[in-house]
Write a structure and sequence with these properties.
By secondary structure, this protein is mainly alpha-helical. Helices cover 67% and strands 3% of the residues. A two-stranded antiparallel sheet has the order 1-2. Strand 1 and strand 2 form a beta hairpin. Helix 4 crosses helix 5. It is flat and about 90 Å long. The protein starts with 6 loop residues before the first helix and ends with a helix. The relative contact order is 0.03.
Length: 128
């Protein structure tokens, strides 16, 4: 018996040690993760209510995306629109990164930023 621990604490620690040593770690991990469950080999299907007798898949978003692709594959303007959207996203990303970089520089050297702003303001004032 330890001088600093009560008998109840010692018994509790002994029970915990016995419980931990009796249960293998692999079993605990396997029981705690859903990924360790066996894979289901069945699939459910639903009939489309639009009068067609086709079966829908379990992923309606995928069906929607495939339908959209099939609708727009003959559209001659689809690719330029996608490229324009990608360019817009890239521009927004660059603008955000440049803004954050400028803010960082201003925070690091505030007096230089104030001097630069004053000089630019002075030059613009002279040209008007």
């Amino acid at each position: 018996m330890s001088l600093n621990k009560s008998p109840a604490v010692e018994d509790f620690e002994k029970e915990q040690a016995a419980r931990i040593s009796n249960v293998p770690l692999d079993t605990d991990l396997k029981d705690s993760f859903r990924a360790s469950d066996p894979v289901s080999v069945t699939a459910t299907t639903m009939l489309i209510r639009s009068g067609q007798n086709e079966a829908a898949s379990d992923a309606p978003r995928v069906d929607e995306a495939i339908g959209s692709i099939l609708e727009h594959r003959k559209d001659p303007y689809a690719e330029p629109r996608e490229q324009a959207a990608a360019l817009k996203d890239e521009f927004e990303s660059l603008r955000y990164r440049a803004t954050e970089q400028a803010k960082s520089k201003i925070r690091q050297q505030p007096w230089q930023a104030i001097g630069l702003a004053a000089a630019i303001g002075f030059v613009i004032g002279l040209t008007r």
